[in-house]
Amino acid sequence: MAEVTGYNRVTENGRRRYVKPTKKFQRGNFFLRYRHNGRRVWESAGQYLSPARALACERQAQLLREENLPSPNRRRGGLRSRSSR
Q1: Which of 13, 22, 18 is nearest to 31 (CA)?
Q2: Which residues contact 1 (CB under 8 A, 6 or more apart)?
Q3: Residue 6: pLDDT band by 50, 70, 90 thresholds?
Q4: Sorting pLDDT into bands at 50, 70 and 90, what band is 59?
Q5: pLDDT band per the 50, 70, 90 thresholds, residue 28
Q6: Going edge to edge, which strands form the sheet with 5-12?
Q7: Which of 66, 63, 68, 65 is nearest to 33 (CA)?
Q8: What pLDDT does 32 receive?
């Protein structure tokens, strides 16, 4: 199942860390974290919370669509190659 999580990059005492957005952190550098083709991806989502959340919903919908597409490498229903006959 595709899951997209939003994070806010916060700098405190000269150190950066990623936290889940709250009312305290409405503005800053937002990022999305998700798995695409088996790889974990960080994606920049802008500086404001609302557009970042909208992008997270779009990305999650895109990943769900990709999951439900049939794989072109899968063979269907007992087809055999000519060399195995």
Answers
A1: 18
A2: 67
A3: very high
A4: very high
A5: confident
A6: 15-19, 5-12, 27-36, 39-48
A7: 63
A8: 95
Please tell me the distance from the alpha carbon of residue 11 to that of residue 31, in angstroms, as a whole number. Answer: 14
For 6-73, the DSSP string reads: EEEEEEETTEEEEE---SS-SEEEEEEEEEETTEEEEEEEEEEHHHHHHHHHHHHHHHHHHHHSPPTT
Mean pLDDT, all residues of the chain: 82
Rounded alpha-carbon distances, angstroms, from residue 68 to 2, 32, 55, 63, 71? 11, 22, 20, 9, 9
pTM of the model: 0.71
- Residue 60, judged by CB atoms within 10 A of its CB (0-12, 13-18, 19+), counts as middle
Residues in the chain: 85
Question: Residue written as tokens 């229903």?
Answer: 77
